[in-house]
Design goal:
The chain has about 350 residues and is α+β, with helices and mostly antiparallel strands. It has helices spanning about 85-100, 125-140, 145-155, 210, 220-240, 245-265, 275-290, 310-320; strands at about 15-25, 30-35, 40, 45-60, 65-70, 105-115, 165-170, 180-185, 190-200, 295, 305-310, 325-330, 340. Strands 1, 4, 5, 6, 7, 8 and 13 form a seven-stranded mixed beta sheet that branches. Strands 10-11-9-12 form a four-stranded antiparallel beta sheet. It binds (3R)-3-hydroxy-3-methyl-5-(phosphonooxy)pentanoic acid.
Amino acid sequence: MCKDYPTRVKNNMKATAVAPSNIAFIKYWGKKDEVLRLPENGSLSMNLSNLLTTTTVEFDKKYRQDEVFLKGSTLYKVEPSQEGNDPKRVIEHLNLIRKMVKTNLKAKVVSQTNFPSGTGLSSSASGFAALTLAASKAAGLNLSEKDLSILARQGSGSACRSIPDGFVEWLDGSTSKTSYAISLFPPDYWKIADVVAIVSTDKKDVSSTAGQKLVSSSPFFQTRLQNIKIKLERAKQLLTEKNFPLFGELLEAEALELHAIMLTSRPSLIYWTPGTLKIMKLVKKWRGEGLPVYFTINTGQDIHLICEQKNIDKIQEKLKEIDEIKNIIINYPSVGARLSDNHLF
Ligand code: PMV
């Protein structure tokens, strides 16, 4: 595997990319442009080493129409109709790339994700980042990291953060060209982890895309926007200082603020299940007992526990005792999207 975008794939009509999902510490929720997916605010995230999508794309005249195959892992069956893995959105993304290289060639896309989709683990981020790198490369484009991030953003907003390495900031921007993600620090910068607890593999009832459209119906959204710049700067400062307790407090409060907006939208969005809530309360209890761990949650019931790597074992032991938890996935900070020689077909 390699991040050397320009030279890696010899046959430039077929390419494979691997991309991580990411966890946002400061969240993206609300768009100022629906089509271009320009966010209302900047966000901050970490790429995740063990939540991955691998995608192979081939453009060839032998394909009379686009063929899209989205496979789950052996552990989880991913249905093609799931948001973020929707073949229609994949084809729209291919159309953007076809337009850039002025071709009508159809493509075959095979994509494999090693974690459940539609449960709050951002499979659309890894999915559209992998698709962007594989499809642009297969089409013969040698895009810069910035241009890959801009293109990935148009497939799924959070996908732009899965292109650069490690700890990442998405610069909100006011135009398509100025809204992209950059790496603030490499993966080995800070030894923290994201211990993901899979509470259930049931799919969420409202997709992120649909949920985001409700954002301005929450009476608290304007207040969030008034304070978000200062919050983002504070988070970046704490990341720079590697101040884990204060960083953890801030990211947990941010997750709760996101869900306060969701809960007070009309109609309301409730992504938690009793299992999610049980873990939220336990995390606070464990903290009270001296274990520094903080939670964050996206659009789904599965929950991310952020801790220092030295505490992973302790947290895993505690999680194993909770009946509601179906699986635990340990994630370290990771590189972003990269090319691979292991084609899926
Ligand atoms: O990229 P989308 O449309 O799936 O939205 C992601 C939104 C959150 O996961 C809730 C927050 C974030 O910044 O990742």
